[in-house]
Amino acid sequence: MSGPRFRETIARALEKRSFGPETNLIRLIDGAGDQMRGHYLESYGEGWMISTSGAGLNADLKTALSEYEKPLYWKRLDQHQKESPVHLSGPEMPESFTGLENGLQCRLSFQSGYSQGIFIDQRDNRAKLRALVKPGQTVLNTFAYTGFFSVVAANAGAVTSTLDLSQVYLDWARENFRLNEMNPDDHYFCKGDTFHWLRRFAKQGRSFNFIILDPPTFSRDDKGKVFRVEKDYGALFQLALACLAPGGSILACTNFRGMSSADFEEQLQEVSPRGMHFEHAPMPSDFTDEAYLKSVWASR
Ligand SMILES: C[S@@+](CC[C@H](N)C(=O)[O-])C[C@H]1O[C@@H](n2cnc3c(N)ncnc32)[C@H](O)[C@@H]1O
């Protein structure tokens, strides 16, 4: 693509997306969905991040993006996950800054390795949880990362339990609560393996009105035991079912591209009691490329 073509394509992609002032965590260009295969541009608050594979960013593309005068960063998709994005043009972002999703604030960083502090492809699922949950209900957010599912649920009046292997992310989640003027001490934070905690909750007879399951495709727990979405999701879902309150819902997600939505639901069906209701949720409208994120709201 030449410089003018890049300009046109970028402008068209931006025009397609209209979000109000309450949300600035947006996928602005979604690869082939915006005629730019392999290129993903996201806004994180004031900052823009372009993600591509390969050793360098096309110079014409860089120039076209720089003309927006935003803090522009580039992330290599084929690089080791812990690599932070590289600053390309515009002002530099501070080490820690905030973004907005439906009026709620999230702490972000372009220097934290793995990810920026939020997975924006989960925006609509978070909005749905926030709309469904009633004050006083309980929400268990497993594989919670920086806890934004917990933040939206707590904002709607829920009592949340946020569970992750990483203390760094649990501390980050607590900060996200404080950013939104909620006291994290009114909620629960559990460090450790999701499988372990689900078994423990079931043994204690603890149950939750909503359970969020959004595991990485591959994970190893603190004892070295491996979890693979394609063969272990059913077992994970079964453990969650044992902790689900009557009338409750589990949001089961996976971004594993090697499995269809139908195969995913089949794994869930296999371990579910009769009468369970399954509803598939689409990806947010700014994700116009392949719908890689499979989301099933399973209710009983
Ligand atoms: C794909 S992210 C989850 C994204 C999150 N649900 C969200 O929407 O922001 C993976 C997270 O799972 C955590 N994790 C990985 N294996 C885990 C395990 N066995 N038990 C608990 N957390 C785990 C990681 O520390 C990381 O924060």
Question: Could you explain the architecture of this structure?
Answer:
The structure is a single chain. By secondary structure, the chain is an alpha/beta fold. It folds into two domains: 3-102, 2-Layer Sandwich (Transcription Regulator spoIIAA); 119-299, Rossmann fold. Helix content is 29%, strand content 28%. The protein contains eight helices and 16 strands. It has helices spanning 3-16, 59-66, 123-132, 148-155, 167-179, 194-204, 229-241, 261-270; strands spanning 25-30, 40-44, 47-52, 72-76, 86-89, 97-101, 104-108, 138-141, 159-164, 188-191, 208-213, 218-220, 226-228, 244-254, 277-281, 294-299. The chain has a seven-stranded mixed β-sheet, sandwiched between helices. β3, α2 (59-66) and β4 form a beta-alpha-beta unit. α3 (123-132) runs parallel beside α4 (148-155) and α7 (229-241) crosses α8 (261-270). The termini are far apart. Residues 119, 122, 143-145, 148, 163-166, 169, 193-194, 214, 216, 219, 221 line the site of S-adenosylmethionine (SAM).
The parts where pLDDT drops under 50 for at least 5 residues are none
| Order of strands in the sheet with most strands | 10-9-8-11-14-16-15
Radius of gyration: 20 Å
CATH level-two architecture of the largest domain? 3-Layer(aba) Sandwich
Give the fraction of residues assigned to helices: 25-40%
CATH classification, class level of the largest domain:
Alpha Beta
One letter per element, helices H and strands E, the order comes to: HEEEHEEEEHEHEHEHEEEHEHEE
Our measurement of the CA-to-CA distance between the termini, rounded to an integer number of angstroms, reads 51 Å
Strand content: 25-35%
For the secondary structure, the number of strands is: 16
Bound molecules: S-adenosylmethionine
Oligomer: single chain
- Number of helical regions: 8
Instruction: Output the CATH topology of the largest domain.
Output: Rossmann fold
Mean pLDDT: 94
Q: At the fourth CATH level, what is the homologous superfamily of the largest domain?
A: Vaccinia Virus protein VP39
General shape: globular
Structure class:
alpha/beta
